[in-house]
Amino acid sequence: MSSIETDRAEPAFDHDIVVVGGGPAGCAAGVFTARCDLDTVIFDRGRSSIQRCAYLENYLGFPAGIDVETLYGLMHDHAEEAGCEIVPDLVESLECVDDGEGFVVTPQEGEPVTARRVIAATRYDGEYMRGLDDETAMFETHEHDGEEHEHFDKGYAESDGTTPVDDLFIASPYGETGYQAIMAAGHGTRVGITVVEDVRRERGYPEPVANHFDWMRRETELDDEWRDRDRWREQFDDRLPEDHDLQTERLAAIREREIDRRLETYLADDEIERRIERGHERLLEHIDDDLIVEAAREIETERESGET
């Protein structure tokens, strides 16, 4: 996990990020924010729209498909491993705090909490967001069977999840992203990265260096040139806009932290092997024990046959 913090003061909010909804979109967004050391809580009422599916046969990575219960468990396990807290509760309302920065999140059963940013990742009607903006902008009216019905406007947010309400992001699987679970996960990822980059800007990163990626690479890819921190400093400075207003000390702190983050993404061979083994072990936790035992017996039989 890497940090995007720069001289961070004591938090004024209970959480950096609250995600409303623990389906593919919400968990994907939470994984990316939590991995960047943002305190992330996911409220999940346990009735994600994905649970309407009888069985998933097109979610990448599962050649014979995956049952919804197992996929849900894997998603939540991944989010928690990344650092998210998952709260099994329904969010009833969001309100802006008195000074207009951040939100008060009121769940159905627990105590209200405050959050610096909120990611809405549910498909339910958006009633909990009423009052955050002009309702004619956030909701639209449709006529059905002679009666008028009001629904959350699926086009309210931009494609990257940003909205007219500061610090409110929409990762809900609406419109073009709403028909397949894997599309919802992809949209949640995009919104999660949008939020991370928004935080980086707030913490002083100038626009050209605020972009963020999250991947691991082999240490062997680092040649002598890129093992030198001065080369990274040169690259960072080359990307800075000439009109940035960062003081020298502040700029140096951001630069060095960013170089640390970049270098941490390169893994030695033994660390790669350790992570591969641990990743496989974690997957086994979600597989039926009887199937594991049966597979182990088959493997042992094949080995014995090969020895004779």
TrEMBL record:
Required co-factors: FAD
Domain of life, per lineage: Archaea
Keywords, ordered alphabetically: FAD, Flavoprotein, Oxidoreductase
Statement: the UniProt record of this protein carries the keyword DNA-binding: no
Domain MnmG N-terminal: 16-83
Gene Ontology molecular-function annotations: oxidoreductase activity
PANTHER family to which the protein is assigned, alphabetical: THIOREDOXIN REDUCTASE 1-RELATED-RELATED (PTHR48105)
Name of the protein this chain belongs to: NAD(P)/FAD-dependent oxidoreductase
Native organism: Natrinema zhouii
